[in-house]
Amino acid sequence: MRGLANVAIIALVDEATGYEKLRKRQALAEVLDRYLSDKLNPWTKTFPDAYYENLFRLKGWDYKTLSPGDGKPAEVGKITREVVYRRLHPGIVEELDRQNPQVVPGRRLYKHHQWLSDEIGHPALREHLAKIVTVMQLSDGWIEFERNLGKVLPMRDEQSYFDEFFDGD
Asked: Which end of the chain, N or C, is more open, meaning fewer C-beta atoms within 10 Å of its C-beta?
């Protein structure tokens, strides 16, 4: 009981002083430092063909073997942003957008995955993509995929993530 009371008092003081918001910003900065690299990594094939094959199947599009530079529907980039990067970790997509801005609408100089760290970012992305591809394979259509993806990898904003993170303090 005493430990619970101490945690409650600390939480009240943090909230009253505004330190709670600072703590959340510091925690996000620490996560971003682990996930993102301060240098651009060389391009390597990161997204498996199964990701694109299933994306095209679920959208009802004709699939052809893709290689870098192939013309894909512009929607593929938007879908990848929402399905992959926005669900990877709260705050990641915004920081990637800052590090890798659009040079013309819809075009960036580099791929977002080139800015991920070798230690945390790339392994997390590979694991994340494996889950997404599995959900794609289990889904018969785009709406079913979105529903299933929401169950397996729910979209969480920064606030809900850190509320959950700090509840365990």
From this structure: N
